[in-house]
Amino acid sequence: MLQGWVIVLAAFAYLGVLFAIAYRADRRADAGRSVIASPVVYALSLAVYCTTWTFYGSVGRAAATGIGFLPIYLGPTLTLALGWFIIAKIVRVAKLNRITSIADFVASRYGKSQLLGGLVTVIAVIGVIPYIALQLKAVSNSFTILLSYPEIVMPAKAGTAPLLNDSAFYVAIVMAAFTILFGTRHLDATERHEGMVAAIAFESVVKLVAFFTVGLFVTYGIHDGFADVFDRAQESARLSALMTTADTARSYGSWAGLTFLSMLSVLLLPRQFQIAVVENVNPDHVRRAIWLFPLYLFIINIFVLPIAIGGLLQFPSGVDADTFVLTLPMAHHQQAIALLVFIGGLSAATGMIIVETIALSTMVCNDLVMPVLLRMRSLRLQERHDLSGLLLEIRRWAIGLILMLGYLYFRLAGEAYALVSIGLISFAAVAQFAPAVIGGLYWKGGTREGALAGLSAGFAVWVYTLLLPSFAKSGWLPDDFMAHGLFGLELLRPLQLFGLTGLDEISHCLFWSLLANIGAYLGVSLLRAPNAREVRQATLFVDVEERGRVVGWRGGAPVADLLPLAGRFLGPERAREAFERHARERGLAAVEDLPADARLVQFAESLLAGAIGSASARVMVASVVQEEPLGIDEVMNILDEASQVRAYSHELEEKSRELERATAELREANERLRELDRMKDDFMSTVSHELRTPLTSIRAFSEMLFDDPCTELAERKRFLGIIVSEAGRLTRLINQILDLAKLESGRAEWSPVEVDLAEIARESADSMSQVYRHKGVALTLDVPESGAVVLGDRDRLTQVLINLLSNAQKFVAAGSGQVRVSVRCEGEFVKVVVSDNGPGVPAEERETIFEKFRQGGSVLTDKPHGTGLGLPISREIVEYFGGRLWVESDPGGGAAFVFTLPVFGDGGR
Amino acid sequence: MAPAFGVESIAMNHSRLTAQRLVALFLLGCLLFNFPLLALFNQGGEVFGIPLLYAYLFGAWLALIGLMAFVAERRH
Which end of chain B, N or C, is surrounded by fewer C-beta atoms within 10 Å? Predict the structure, then answer.
């Protein structure tokens, strides 16, 4: 029954089933009833880890090294034990930052570096190519072997068959076509593929069932159970050697090395990252996968050793141990089992190739090709609205290219190694991501340059110690450098780098590459402190747990869960009342109608917070809420919160600056007030002195008159004259104080009319002439006949002039003093100058003499010449009518008091 | 509020305890699957007809998976 067309038909039928499953899962996902929202499906899809390497290669490895196939599965078990720490954290980070691939993860962690994303992509593509070659080799070999049934013939050596007769070539083409059809039907912004995950989970079941069937057949069909298989193995010296492993340091070292390598690979292979992180729908699924995925690995490995022993017993020589899984049923003419094995192997291969190439094509497209295309201005990509077609096209080409590279590697180097050894080369390549990924998840000090240096160094060592030797072993490179080292330097022999021996080549590469990688990552990172962008990204990654608590609820919980929870703390009746109130507020008739959304959760939390405190309420509510992955909105909210906080702090800074300004102003005002207060005090002492002088003389003379009624008439008259004149002085003083108070408070009465300043000057000079003559001071007038007309109050302006004239005569020397008054029209102003030949006014006093209560000269030494109010009053008056009053003076050269007023008329007011 | 603190710390401690138990299991696995314990069983001999090393590794593996399942699935 195993003709060629049957095998091909079965293969295509199987691929058709995969399509149907994926299609249905996608449809159900669109309808909101996801089939992959289950921890069991998640764990099964993780089993994409088991490829044809596991399906065919494990038996080959076991036939050569006994238990040596096992570290590849013990490592992932250990990693999953740490899954609660590492995987769940990566998943949270990826959801929060919308990570779409491992390249995206590394690039985003170190400040969103495109260069870093590109480097990770290149390493991933080159590193994974041997792994893809392995799948092609396994599928094409199994097909060729099955085709020759009932004979068991090993396929010709890879690379010897012409291209068009090479079944691996057709396998590569079919795989590429299938993956393109399967994985790039449409574009999903989140890079999530629900249909693919469902199909992968299905494939995991198929390959497990197929392998388990072969195992049962070999162990219980051909032999009599485990004990029988091992008994027969003990009979042969060669087989009994497989029951133990070499008791040497090299053997244990190699064991530990492989365990460590697989620990890293189960996390860092692009397809594992895709399934475990990108396709994860709920971080809580990790909890179930922690034990379910290792259990899967356990089950698929139970029969490896029995099949290997069965194969070695059946075929002492001439049959590749990598094919025992297929050739044993064939040797016993079990066609159905053989076909099932072929399908199982096909499912293991397709699962790997689909996820791996989709993950890689996403990386190639997003992190390698698009950044370059977007930089090429001439393409004008920024202006195109819909790039999805272009993106899909790039991905299709990437898938085809990756599979062709895999085929090329198969032709070049595929024959030199067993399946497992090819796969380990890829494992060692992706292990180079470990320092950047895991370091970046727990250490904030890593920088972009550090990650670049670490990845480049590790990758270079990997190429030199593992990839190039694999070409050399196949004869595609001269093996001269293998034996004698690069440039003939013995120390640089790729498999004994720096003379290191005693390790197998994988452990050897792993040691040197990770040494270079971690060394460069740490060393270069520590050269400088991370910049602001790196710190921000580091915080997002390292402190993802703390961030998660800051965000509000991202999911909902049904009333059926929340109501009993609240009831436990509030009492069932009170809780129900509160929920009913909430339902009414939202316009719903019954409590049961409340949707299971974030708002309801918020309500329940605040309700509980009143009873048990907010922190406890959050923990209690968290126990029933099904949190959903973060959407772009939530991410924007987080960013908004951050920017709000920044805005607040800006505002605060502004406010504190304002406060400082206000404080300074207040201090200044206070200073001014103190100054004024001091001036007031000075004035009070002056004024009280001024007031007391006339009062004292009035009182003295009055008492003399009162006490001595016999005073002579002439004497009495003189006394009374003094009393009258002192009383007059007292009155003037009081009048001036009142006058100034009125002026300052704006309650003075003004009667502005047209007045001629020349006339006022003449009148004032007349009224002062008596005083001048009395003191012997010459007064000259330089006044026009008329025309100096301004708008003003006649009495007030007369007051100003008399004030100035009176001041002038006070300061000039008696007998030789000269005072001159001039009135001039200058443009739009009338200028009045009262100059004298007195001592002048020192520069520092030219403004202060216009302040109230100040007088020229020292208050303490000179006798006061007046009230100290004349000049301030005059200035108030002049300024009221729109003019200015100031003093010009040279010390020793007399003083000139000048005031101007606007001319009345065309230009005046 | 004393009772509130109690509720909160029980829930927090439970999650932390789960994580710590899993890390302990990880360390246990590292110990079980490596030299020198491995060397103890790396010799001839059989358990119920199954080679000692084979029986030990698969037994220890299954026991570890069982413990991981117990710890991960346990809810308070």
Answer: C
Cα→Cα distances B25→A126, A859, B36, Å = 35, 97, 18
Place of tokens 């922190």: A615
pTM as predicted:
0.63
Which residue reads 């989140």 in tokens? A190
Closest CA to A406 of A393, A425, A434, A390: A425
B18–A256 CB contact, under 8 Å: no
**Tally of helices (H runs) and strands (E runs) in chain B:** 3, 2
Residue A616: predicted pLDDT: 54
Select the residue from B42, B46, B67, B70 to test the A interface by mutation, using most A Cβ atoms within 10 A.
B42
- Within 8 A of B26 by CB-CB distance, chain A residues are 78, 81-82
What local confidence, expressed as pLDDT, does residue A272 receive? 92
Q: What share of chain A is helix, strand, coil (3-state, %, to 5)?
A: 70, 5, 25
Mutual angle of helices A194-216 and A167-183, in 10-degree steps: 140
Residue A73: what pLDDT?
A: 92
pLDDT category at A867 given cuts 50, 70, 90 is: low
- pLDDT at position A665, please? 93
Largest CA-CA distance found in chain A, in angstroms, rounded: 172
Burial of A362 (0-12, 13-18, 19+ CB in 10 A): buried
| DSSP one-letter code for A551 | S
**Does residue B9 fall inside a structural domain?**
no
Number of domains making up chain B: 1
DSSP letter string over B49-72?
TEEHHHHHHHHHHHHHHHHHHHHH
d(CA A147, CA A778): 144
Nearest-by-Cβ selection for B51 from A243, A255, A291: A243
The pair of structure tokens assigned to A295 is 């259990």
